[in-house]
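Methods — Computational structure assignment.
A single polypeptide chain was analysed. Its primary sequence is given first, followed by the predicted tertiary structure written as structure tokens.
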Amino acid sequence: MMRLNKFIAHYSTYSRREADKVVQDGYVRVNGEIQDNPATQVDEKADVIYVSGKLISRQEKYTVIVYNKPKGELVHKVRS
């Protein structure tokens, strides 16, 4: 079991804060029902979760990028 916002952030391109916003704005369905509480507990193996109509599924593969950015350089997350 894990929090809904953590699940979305972990298995999609959303950050935790972005996940909070889409949940609160009513764009998330868990097992067909709209959820508006980011702290809702979900079972990552059993629950079916959609964000804006797109299925967010559990993944076993991870990509890790290590980058030593110079002081003063700004970095932002790019959605694919």
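Note: The mean pLDDT is 90.
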